[in-house]
Specification:
The chain is globular and about 50 Å long. The protein folds into two domains: 114 residues, Orthogonal Bundle (Muramoyl-pentapeptide Carboxypeptidase, domain 1), CATH 1.10.101.10; 107 residues, 2-Layer Sandwich (Muramoyl-pentapeptide Carboxypeptidase, domain 2), CATH 3.30.1380.10. It starts with a helix and ends in a 19-residue tail after the last strand. It is an alpha+beta fold. The longest helix is centred in the middle third of the chain and has 21 residues. Strands 1-2-4-3-5 form a five-stranded mixed β-sheet, with helices on one face. The N terminus is likely disordered. The protein binds zinc ion. Its EC number is 3.4.17.14. One of its GO terms (molecular function) is zinc D-Ala-D-Ala carboxypeptidase activity. This is Zinc D-Ala-D-Ala carboxypeptidase. Keywords: Carboxypeptidase, Hydrolase, Protease, Signal.
Length: 265
């Protein structure tokens, strides 16, 4: 298993902003030469994953399919392969024309390898794009490592959304903010930008309303867009523990009362 050990080292060295690989579980399916050939410097799965599996490899899979929870859903990134993960894997497989059985095997991993860069970001998004505040992700409401990891999950959600909207570029205007950056732009003290998972989108070729509407299918619990105070010129998508969607000019949510303070910018 020498080659396997080397791959593990590569995963460890890559760091990747998220937790690193843990040793494979007791009885993994053997890794074939073909699997190894397509592995990249980010992360290499060493076994087929299906409902009932658990571990860091499941969590790594969950991050990659976080954009496929179904309308209004948010996939838990808990390392437990339950029905929600199976449904997300199935939607991912359908989106890319793979056999849709909800089991992540070589074909699914191969597609993921194709979609990710060596730093684990999806090919069409980058850490730099999601942070025009500073270079080290420090100074927010969470540790730099957590902010960066949160941004990674948002990028995978955006990658799913981008693909669902015809693979046209999505215009990212910013993401993570330190407290200082947030104060400088007058952001709320509870802004998800302080946690790294908020992303502000420009109109791009899709248009604001199409983006806000589509975000509902791809794991974003917070969506703010046209008609919501301060959001006529961008769409804000983020994670949040409970759902808050408001883009009244796009038919999403109620128009806030005049006395309501925007929860975020
Ligand atoms: Zn925002």
């Amino acid at each position: 298993m020498k080659f396997r050990a080397v791959l593990s080292m590569v995963a460890l060295l890559a760091g990747a902003g998220t937790a690193v690989a843990t040793p494979a579980a007791a009885d993994p399916e053997p890794v074939t030469a073909a699997d190894m050939a397509i592995a990249d410097a980010c992360y290499t799965w060493g076994r087929t994953l299906s409902e009932g599996a658990s571990g860091e490899d499941v969590r790594q899979l969950q991050i990659r399919v976080a954009g496929y929870p179904g309308y209004g859903g948010v996939l838990g990134l808990d390392g437990e392969f339950g029905p929600g993960t199976k449904a997300a894997v199935t939607r991912f497989q359908q989106a890319y024309g793979l056999g849709a059985d909800g089991i992540a095997g070589p074909a699914t991993f191969s597609k993921i390898y194709e979609l990710q860069d060596n730093d684990c970001t999806p090919v069409d998004f980058s850490y730099d794009e999601l942070n025009n505040c500073n270079s080290d992700w420090s100074g927010g409401n969470v540790s730099a490592a957590t902010a960066r990891a949160n941004a990674l999950v948002s990028m995978w959600k955006l990658q799913a959304m981008r693909h669902a909207m015809g693979d046209r570029p999505i215009d990212v205007n910013g993401g993570f903010r330190s407290v200082a950056c947030n104060n400088a732009v007058g952001g709320s003290a509870t802004s998800r930008h302080l946690y790294g998972d908020a992303v502000d989108l420009g109109a791009g070729p899709q248009g604001f309303c199409a983006l806000a509407q589509k975000a509902r299918d791809h794991g974003f619990n917070e969506i703010l867009g046209p008609g919501y105070p301060g959001h006529n010129d961008h769409v804000h998508v983020a994670h949040k523990s409970s759902r808050f969607w408001s883009a009244p000019s796009c038919g999403i949510g109620a128009r806030p009362r005049a006395d309501e303070v925007p929860v975020d910018y």
